[in-house]
Amino acid sequence: MTDAHIIRLTAAETAAKIASGELTAVEVTEAHLARIDAVDEKVHAFLHVDRAGALAQARAVDAKRENGEKLGPLAGVPLALKDIFTTEGIPTTVGSKILEGWIPPYDATLTKKLKAADVVILGKTNMDEFAMGSSTENSAYGPTGNPWDLTKIPGGSGGGSSAALASFEAPLAIGTDTGGSIRQPAAVTGTVGVKPTYGGVSRYGMVAFSSSLDQGGPCARTVLDAALLHEVIAGHDPLDSTSIDAPVPPVVEAARNGSVAGMRVGVVKQFRGEGYQAGVLQRFDESVELMRGLGAEIVELDCPSFDLGLSAYYLIAPSECSSNLARFDAMRYGLRVGDDGTKSAEEVTALTREAGFGDEVKRRIILGTYALSSGYYDAYYGSAQKVRTLITQDFEKAFEKVDVIVSPTTPTTAFPIGERADDPMAMYLADLCTIPTNLAGNAAMSLPCGLAPEDGMPVGLQIIAPAMKDDRLYKVGAAVEAAFVEKWGHPLLEEAPSL
Amino acid sequence: MTVTDLVSYEDALASYDPVMGLEVHVELGTKTKMFCGCSTELKQDANSQTCPTCLGLPGSLPVVNAIGVESAVKIGLALNCEIAEWCRFARKNYFYPDMPKNFQTSQYDEPIAFNGYLDVQLEDGEIFRVQIERAHMEEDTGKSLHVGGATGRIHGASHSLLDYNRAGIPLIEIVTKPIEGAGTRAPEVAKAYVAELRELIKALGVSEARMEQGQMRCDVNLSLRPHGREEFGTRSETKNVNSLRSVERAARFEIQRHAAVLNSGGTIVQETRHFHEEDGSTTAGRIKDNAEDYRYFPEPDLVPVAPAREWVEELRKGLPELPRVRRNRLREEWGVSEHDMQSMLNAGAIDPIVATIEAGADAASARKWWMGELARNANESGRDLASLPITPEQVARVTALVKEGSLNDKLARQVIEGVLAGEGGPDDVVEKRGLKVVSDEGALSTAVDEAIAANAGIADKIRSGKVAAAGALVGAVMKATRGQADAARVRELILEKLGVTEG
Amino acid sequence: MPGITREEVAHLARLARLELKGEELDHFAGQLDDIIGAVARVSEVADQDVPPTSHPLPLTNVMRADEVRPSLTPEQALSGAPAQEQQRFKVPQILGED
Ligand SMILES: [Mg+2]
Ligand SMILES: [Zn+2]
């Protein structure tokens, strides 16, 4: 099998071929490393490629197979890991200058689980600094291009991961989703991304942005691949107090048995209107019709509090980040600037943070410091938490009437790099539809539903399920995916230009 | 303000009424830190007891130590507090290099225990009730070593070296309500409160509460108001007053200093102050202005703590006898005065004495050794009684040897000295040093005869009725027997042999 | 809801230990004023009688047994230190308490 062929296999296919001996893990890994060599200069999905580590892991998988040892369901399958998870001995920068060169002395729980499952970690992917952004332009190491159009953003913060998938540099990737950073990149690159229920995937070793919103999750090119990866990374972790101590929902089973027949699917009236691109709404409406055609009952929903979601989010997330990022002070690790023997620790901290953080991070730290400061706390942080309650209640009421909710993942398709770079409010709108889920803690997926007629860029369909019902995403997602592939005659990514 | 400007204590109290607030931090004696599994063992190699969590490495997360919570509830119950049905941790945000995350995980408006009191007994036996505002859980900071300045002080240091072994050790912060009405006895109340709290903590078994090791640290907040006024004056916060005596001195000093400032028409600045052991004074630290804004918010990495009522009641049932109640019981059993009891408390002698009695000694002997020889030794070596290298069982063995007549008091002191010097247990010291009362009448008789023969002049004096001179012969015999004779018996023998009877 | 001034931004930057340059202060003050103006909408619910949600999970009492787990070695702990001395993190002079 040629490299060109190998890199287009799904993760499920790759794993099966390695398990059967048709391919070796080393062949698969080398094919992907070659692809990275060929295209990543243009795409810039990776911040660090761990060639030696990946090949060593691949060799270990092949040795295991030869010895007749049991292999994990994704053994030997390459993966691109967002540079927000700690990796022992491998640089972890979180897209920031402040951690340039930092080599963690420990693995994140998710990293450990990937290794234990014999997944081959190719390297660390680019991201908006500290996961703050919707375009990956806030990376201190330069932007990532959207493989559909390299002049456009690949979404953010996990643009490196989505771009790695869409450019066939890896069949699997890991993202984190605080306000949409898995789903929005998936939507704008024509890939699949899932934000699991909050607490479903351990946050231990995932560098915190906003602790009560952050959630790691799977990114892939197919719904089944996402489910296989979901199963590997999910589960209770005693090192994370906010980790759910319950069995992982049967996501793989659901992905193998896609169906929407007889399901009640909600359409929320607040998820459309001003700011939504016509082509996005068109593809969304077609998706709803497609589900109706597959036997779903479509239910109109009114969730008035969702209109306040963005505002609440931009108070809660900055507040928590202002505290979470205080540890980057030049004392114990990371960058240190201005230590000339005359300056105080306080001065060195302030100089280092000034030099080491980018604008968006500084903006959010200041905003969060403001929202938490005495005199403003009740009006801002306190009110934002009330909005959070109202949004949760709106979801609860909605899920009494429906099994899942659907919406466009993003109001628009990928915009040009640079277009919104210095207009924070415009940038924030990219997460309009994804944020309510983070505030409430439930689960959501984005999967491709076509290209917008006006620009030919991918459009994402968001599916939202109640907390702990992640399997419903896969059941519905798999059915929708199959119907679209049948309709188009091929997966959407086949229409992407070759790089 | 220098010491000479102080108003006399009596004059200060004649014009003003002191109001105090005491904040005590207790390091719990858990095996592991509050939010990670690192050991809390003291005096280990620098940075050998740290992990991603207590170093604040990116990505790390906290998990609450169950025994930390249990200890907090026990302390709350023993302080007659209500125990929260539901409470949270909060982040207290401020930058300081000894704090790895640059926020302290603490509790803010939802402490685990609140609204309690502690009755403390003053030296004359009077009971003073100190109201408790709250007791909450938090974590300790790392330790800084300041290099390049004078004697490890921060000012003038060129840089500092940080060891995070202590960072994350569980702390319980216990805050009193304003202590009013103590009047001239405010400093005594402060000291008695801290002493009582320390006993309580030890009795609960949640910490050894050794102040000299920083396991218990006290901040003394104090303000004055003119007699008859309701509102409080501006307070000063004297930090890290780390011995019972210092607590009393710091309160006393601040009363005198505040009075001096107020008398001269000045105003008290709300500031932190540092206490100086050498002369008992305090000096100004950081001014507390409005720029200080800790931006507390609920710790999103932890979930709420909701102590089940049944569990709380179970812990309540398991509480030990309160130290004050126990002390009063012991005082009656031992038949000693309030004052003596207080001295034993201050010396930290009560537990060793009880243990010595439990090991078989009589109460009077146990008290005598611990408050005499051993207290002296502890004082001289700057240690507390509990850390002396002698066990209550060993002290009990010494009293047993005295009781059976094998040792006299003088020899017993030597035995104790030997044990403290690391020469082994009491029997080993007796053996090695050859310390035994010479009770062999024959040997003693010979020694007396020899002494009489060698000191004919003195013997004559005694024969002639100067019984007082017998002391010299006793001394000679004791010297000859290297102190191992029973002096009373020697005297009897001398008088007998010289045919004299005691007048 | 009042806007945010350049002076306030400077004060917040000090609290957050960010040594912002003059032009940054101006730039941020303008942007933050816009953002705060927009997000201040949340105060519409300030008077509503709903409990605040600080966390999406309804969990309580997640605790660990008081059992020692292995620590990092001092070498690992110090591996990222910008400077070290005597197996300790070496930091610039600390202003403040003595
Ligand atoms: Mg405190
Ligand atoms: Zn630790």
TrEMBL record, chain A:
Q: What name goes with this protein? A: Glutamyl-tRNA(Gln) amidotransferase subunit A
Q: Which reaction does it catalyse?
A: L-glutamyl-tRNA(Gln) + L-glutamine + ATP + H2O = L-glutaminyl-tRNA(Gln) + L-glutamate + ADP + phosphate + H(+)
The answer, when asked if Cytoplasm is one of the entry's keywords, is no
EC number(s) per entry = 6.3.5.7
**What residues make up the catalytic site?**
82 (charge relay system), 157 (charge relay system), 181 (acyl-ester intermediate)
Q: Which residues form the signal peptide?
A: none
Task: Name all Amidase domain ranges.
Answer: 27-473
**PANTHER family for the chain:** GLUTAMYL-TRNA(GLN) AMIDOTRANSFERASE SUBUNIT A (PTHR11895:SF151), TRANSAMIDASE (PTHR11895)
Which keywords accompany this UniProt record? ATP-binding, Ligase, Nucleotide-binding, Protein biosynthesis
Report quaternary structure and partners.
Answer: Heterotrimer of A, B and C subunits.
Q: What does this protein do?
A: Allows the formation of correctly charged Gln-tRNA(Gln) through the transamidation of misacylated Glu-tRNA(Gln) in organisms which lack glutaminyl-tRNA synthetase. The reaction takes place in the presence of glutamine and ATP through an activated gamma-phospho-Glu-tRNA(Gln).
Q: Which family does this protein fall into?
A: Belongs to the amidase family. GatA subfamily.
InterPro entries assigned: Amidase (IPR000120), Amidase_CS (IPR020556), Amidase_dom (IPR023631), AS_sf (IPR036928), GatA (IPR004412)
Q: Name the source's superkingdom.
A: Bacteria
Q: What class of enzyme is it?
A: ligase
Automatic annotation (TrEMBL), chain B:
Q: How does it assemble?
A: Heterotrimer of A, B and C subunits.
Q: What class of enzyme is it?
A: ligase
Q: What does this protein do?
A: Allows the formation of correctly charged Asn-tRNA(Asn) or Gln-tRNA(Gln) through the transamidation of misacylated Asp-tRNA(Asn) or Glu-tRNA(Gln) in organisms which lack either or both of asparaginyl-tRNA or glutaminyl-tRNA synthetases. The reaction takes place in the presence of glutamine and ATP through an activated phospho-Asp-tRNA(Asn) or phospho-Glu-tRNA(Gln).
Question: Is Protein biosynthesis one of the keywords?
Answer: yes
Asn/Gln amidotransferase domain residues = 351-498
* SUPFAM superfamilies, sorted: GatB/YqeY motif (SSF89095), Glutamine synthetase/guanido kinase (SSF55931)
Q: Which family does it belong to?
A: Belongs to the GatB/GatE family. GatB subfamily.
Keywords of the record: ATP-binding, Ligase, Nucleotide-binding, Protein biosynthesis
The EC number of this protein is 6.3.5.-
The reaction(s) this protein catalyses: L-aspartyl-tRNA(Asn) + L-glutamine + ATP + H2O = L-asparaginyl-tRNA(Asn) + L-glutamate + ADP + phosphate + 2 H(+); L-glutamyl-tRNA(Gln) + L-glutamine + ATP + H2O = L-glutaminyl-tRNA(Gln) + L-glutamate + ADP + phosphate + H(+)
Q: What is this protein called?
A: Aspartyl/glutamyl-tRNA(Asn/Gln) amidotransferase subunit B
Establish whether keyword ATP-binding is in the entry. Answer: yes
Please name the gene that encodes this protein.
gatB
Q: Short name of one Pfam family for this protein? A: GatB_N
Q: List, alphabetically, the InterPro entries matched.
A: Asn/Gln-tRNA_amidoTrfase_suB/E, Asn/Gln-tRNA_Trfase_suB/E_cat, Asn/Gln_amidotransferase, Asn/Gln_tRNA_amidoTrase-B-like, GatB, GatB_Yqey_C_2, Gln-tRNA_amidoTrfase_suB_CS, Gln_synth/guanido_kin_cat_dom
Per the UniProt entry, the signal peptide is none
Q: Which PROSITE patterns match?
A: GATB
From TrEMBL, chain C:
Catalysed reaction(s) here are: L-glutamyl-tRNA(Gln) + L-glutamine + ATP + H2O = L-glutaminyl-tRNA(Gln) + L-glutamate + ADP + phosphate + H(+); L-aspartyl-tRNA(Asn) + L-glutamine + ATP + H2O = L-asparaginyl-tRNA(Asn) + L-glutamate + ADP + phosphate + 2 H(+)
An example GO biological process term is: regulation of translational fidelity
Sorted UniProt keywords: ATP-binding, Ligase, Nucleotide-binding, Protein biosynthesis, Transferase
Tell me the enzyme class.
ligase
* InterPro entries linked: Asp/Glu-ADT_sf_sub_c, GatC
Pfam families, per database record: GatC
Q: Which GO terms describe its molecular function?
A: asparaginyl-tRNA synthase (glutamine-hydrolyzing) activity; ATP binding; glutaminyl-tRNA synthase (glutamine-hydrolyzing) activity; transferase activity
Q: Where is the segment annotated Disordered?
A: 70-98
EC number(s): the record gives 6.3.5.-
Q: How does it assemble?
A: Heterotrimer of A, B and C subunits.
What family classification does the UniProt entry report for this protein?
A: Belongs to the GatC family.
The record describes the protein's role as: Allows the formation of correctly charged Asn-tRNA(Asn) or Gln-tRNA(Gln) through the transamidation of misacylated Asp-tRNA(Asn) or Glu-tRNA(Gln) in organisms which lack either or both of asparaginyl-tRNA or glutaminyl-tRNA synthetases. The reaction takes place in the presence of glutamine and ATP through an activated phospho-Asp-tRNA(Asn) or phospho-Glu-tRNA(Gln).
Please give the name of this protein: Aspartyl/glutamyl-tRNA(Asn/Gln) amidotransferase subunit C
- What would be the name of the gene that encodes this protein? gatC
